[in-house]
Amino acid sequence: MDICKQVGLNVKRIRKEKGWSQEELAFESGLHRTYISGIERGARNPTIRVVKKISDTLGVDTQVLVG
What is the pLDDT of residues 56-67, one digit of tens each? Predict the structure, then answer.
């Protein structure tokens, strides 16, 4: 599977487990909601810094999003 799609699926899964909307994740991480949407769809190729920012916001290790 494409790494961007894998990261997106993991972000979406963990976000939903927390009961957060895309807007809540965007607000908490300081990213735009449409950017979060693009990541979750695998349409965006986030930098490692963005992946780290999202993982910190979700409270998981970066490897969880990439793995």
Answer: 999 999 999 998
